[in-house]
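Late entry, written up from scratch paper. The run itself happened at the end of the previous shift, but nothing got recorded in the book at the time, so transcribing now.
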Amino acid sequence: MSNTARIHGSPDIVHFFIPLPDPIRVPNLTELAVRYAWDPISDDGPCFRLPAEGNVDYASRRIMIFHQSEVLMDVAPFAAAMQLMNSSIGASGVSPADTSASDSPALPVAQTTVEVISVLEPDAKDPLEHAFETALDVVNDFQTYFHLISKTPLRRLTRKLLPPLLPIILRPFASQNWQPDFLHVNDGGPALRAASTPTLSQDQLQNLLRHNRAARAEVFTAFMLMRQEAMLSYAVGSTAAASLFVAIAAETLLTELFLLLSWEESANLSKTADVLGERDNISKRLLNELAGKLKGDWDRGGEGPLGNWQRHIADLRNAVAHAGKLPTEAEITSAMTALTALETHVGDQLAKSIRRFPLSAEIFLGNKGLEERGRFHAWQRQVATLEIPVHASEIFSRWKAEVERIRSGPLAGNFDKSYTAVVRFGNGAERWYLVDDERNLSCAVHAPNLTEFSRSHLDKTFTESDFDVTTLEVRSLRLPPPQNPQWVPSYLVLPSASIDRWEHCLWVPPKC
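Output as recorded:
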């Protein structure tokens, strides 16, 4: 209990014991009151009376007491892993060389717990909940000002960073009956939610390890990673970060969708780059392109999924990025809901467009998504006679990189990061290049003078190829760059760097 405060009125009082996510270096048992100038005539409600200063009386309804302690770091995951390791060693019949290594280490860390003593306001709808929300605000304000002075980075206190249950003490002023209790503050955080996820079958688990080049995860990687970051930020109560990540997820989804559809249609590279423009945002022109390709509602000013994206995601992101707004949890919940609705909308429109975009529909939806929308058999009939690239996402990634290269400016490769490659045609002609894979550029060089052994080994490799034109990487051979290098996009000179959705031979053999 506070050493300086006296009670005015007969309130019910609650003590919240709130562990902070990061320790704050203030002296143990430091007591700070959120005070205000008190007028007993206009303010006759219950409060803590504080010492007067001059002719001014002060009071408070919330007092913080900082408790500094040393606790042991949670080593339960480590201890569980050590126990399983020892079990494995025991099952093998081999005795560990050093049994002391199996002991869980003691890892003391500093812990700051803030005891917030609050007067319960009987007029509040839920006095205890109201007092707790106000206590969180008081601690957050202190963290903010502490950071301004000390420049120490601190995670903002949120419900999601607290343990599921918080110890509290309830006591009426007129009684010495102190009642310890617990307050339920959250659902247990990401660890408990992860533990409650459905169990995958053995086939599903095995498929996770198979590197499927045509898989949706290979194409929409950025979208799913940003969505994951948004969910993780939201799970720990970092609402500002969550708002930015969910906005990035939505923008990458729409941009990647436009690029994938354009690639499947073999759209002009320069036109595609022009639609994206110089700024990485979702323009009206891009949405018009999506509306033309997939039909449906793509109006950002409407009441559909795109309208909700604009209101709940894009506008929120702008307020955070440009005005420093700190979103509420309700706003992040609305943003996550809008992102899910946008993803569903994309899937629904692709399912309706399988005749025009069968590959994009399969990459985005997969068999399960097509089945859920009753379109799997229709998709099977559509693709029965179509040519599906074996390495669809790899080809698309190169095509997308070429679009980005057009947007970024002139052709300029890096010889320091280049390797040697040779293209052999069916008539025996060869062309040698220095290849910069990072920028998807190649530069023609003169053929080297190979030793007899190297030449015979090279000829044998090409002889074993079943293709009329073959690309071979010769990374062990370092060729000098030409005096006047001419960099060109690799897909123009290397068959292995093809970016075409439809595989067809355009390689006319040069004269030997």
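The chain has 15 helices and 13 strands.
(Scratch paper discarded after transcription.)
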